[in-house]
């Protein structure tokens, strides 16, 4: 059973439609990237999953229940990190963890202690004394230590340094291995590219891509670049396949092509036949897949 199952979600605010017929599914053990720029409908969708908004149309199921009717019961079984973390300023970090565990009615103190150590977090300070990064650490400790089945994470690494981002990545991988579903909304495309196995991209409240990340890459062009001076014969032979060179990278005198997957062996064969040695071949990055839908078209 899907832990998140959304079909045809519509959410309106007056005459403005924030989400327009969105489908979204997250399965146990899946790390699902949820992408879109500001205003695309991500936060509205997440708030609907949490029961903070009611859908105007469509169906929404989280952990087998309707969040509009069963928000309290559902939220005890999931961990949520908001995009802008805020806690009680006069409590210490330890007291915040006590309060959150009390609200949930369940706790894993041994896991909490382990995560406090891994994040290098001082739970004895008051929240008002924490930096943004330390408030984020507190949210992550609370979320991953809780005995929950599902994690909904909205910009979870904001304010973290690269070392702590690596700790976060290992926790996401372990959560998935334990069968916990993860919905990860992030503007850091490299993070989603590294951690997620499934991606949904939305635009103007509508889904424009939703598939395993590897499948999206296979459907997209592979970038092949050749270092060094440009070789006219190579350009001509590759052009015979209907491929034109892409814009050169800044400061490079090499050349490259965006090559459909089916043509990659032929292009590499041409390069080998001409004795070209400095060759890089890379699948489409998540950034390229994302920008394909958001790149402004020239008039």
UniProtKB/TrEMBL annotation:
This is Tetronasin ABC transporter ATP-binding protein. SMART domains: AAA. GO terms for cellular component: plasma membrane. It comes from Gordonia crocea. The keyword ATP-binding applies. The keyword Cell membrane does not apply. Belongs to the ABC transporter superfamily. One of its GO terms (biological process) is response to antibiotic. Its main location: membrane.
């Amino acid at each position: 059973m899907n832990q998140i199952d959304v079909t045809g979600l519509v959410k309106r605010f007056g005459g403005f439609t924030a989400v327009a017929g969105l489908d979204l599914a997250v399965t146990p053990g899946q790390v699902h990237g949820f992408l879109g720029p500001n205003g695309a409908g991500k936060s509205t969708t997440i708030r609907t999953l949490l029961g903070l908004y009611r859908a105007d149309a469509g169906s929404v199921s989280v952990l087998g229940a309707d969040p509009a009717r069963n928000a309290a019961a559902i939220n005890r079984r999931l961990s949520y990190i908001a995009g802008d973390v805020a806690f009680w300023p006069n409590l210490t970090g330890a007291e915040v963890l006590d309060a959150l565990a009390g609200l949930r009615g369940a706790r894993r103190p041994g896991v909490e202690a382990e995560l406090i150590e891994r994040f290098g977090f001082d739970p004895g300070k008051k929240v008002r004394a924490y930096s943004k990064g330390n408030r984020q650490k507190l949210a992550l400790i609370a979320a991953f230590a809780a005995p929950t089945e599902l994690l909904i994470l909205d910009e979870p690494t904001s304010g973290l340094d690269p070392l702590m981002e690596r700790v976060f990545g290992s926790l996401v991988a372990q959560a998935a291995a334990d069968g916990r579903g993860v919905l990860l909304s992030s503007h850091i495309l490299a993070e989603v590219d590294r951690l997620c196995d499934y991606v949904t991209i939305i635009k103007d409240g509508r889904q424009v891509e939703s598939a395993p990340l590897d499948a999206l890459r296979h459907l997209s062009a592979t970038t092949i670049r050749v270092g060094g001076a440009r070789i006219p014969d190579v350009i001509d032979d590759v052009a015979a396949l209907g491929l034109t060179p892409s814009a050169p990278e800044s400061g490079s005198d090499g050349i490259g092509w965006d090559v459909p997957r089916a043509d990659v062996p032929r292009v590499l064969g041409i390069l080998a036949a001409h004795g070209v040695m400095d060759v890089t071949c890379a699948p489409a990055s998540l950034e390229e897949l994302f920008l394909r839908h958001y790149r402004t078209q020239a008039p």
